[in-house]
Amino acid sequence: MKAENILKLAERLKTALDPNNEHPRPASLDKLKALDAMIPNDPVTLASLLVAECVEDIRQSEIKKTGRTTAYKAALRILKSAESGQPTHKDWAYAQIIEGFQYFTNGYALLRLANKLPLEPVPADVGITMQLDAKFMEYIAPCTVEIKDLPTAGEVAAYIKKARAASSEKNPRIDYRFACGLFVNAEYLRDVLEIIDDEGYTAYANAENTRLYIKSEFGADALVFGLRRDRTPGITPAQ
Q1: Domain edges within the chain
Q2: 74, 146, 177, 227: least buried by Cβ within 10 Å?
């Protein structure tokens, strides 16, 4: 049976068990799994979990068709870091659709995509704490200094491995330093570059070197915000 047909049956089962939605459950698959572990065998939770599993299967199938699996996984990493690190912005664990563009952020990277990824939109019961389109335009306006040494996603990934190997810390934060003096979280930079995944992009910084704007020719743009202190152990991108 196709996932779409199973989803319809799962939705009917969920409605039958809770016709007036008196016992709402989270939409997130991870949160539902955690809830099921805490309170096992609850019928409404199980039905909600079945719905979420079907939705995720459909998403994965669509991603495979478009060949954007790497970009999708990178976007999920950004959303997951937002969920764990931004308790005052619960909506940042989801994507916003505004005037045809898809926006999402974790507070350190902010992306705008014309070619949308199948990410979960902000649920009605969560609400939006910040309109990301307005913030995006505000933040990119001062970014006029062209960056000539923007790496590829593969180069950043190799840099992260090398920096981790040089560190004595268990989970070091790796910063990527540009020649202009701007440095950013290397993992977020890698994720952003994997999501954009185009050769036709240019990069700019603001005069204060506090943000990086990556502009693509194919409708994918991103901001990566600079960090206050570089903690990368012992190496530079040129090494």
Answers
A1: 1-66, 140-225
A2: 146
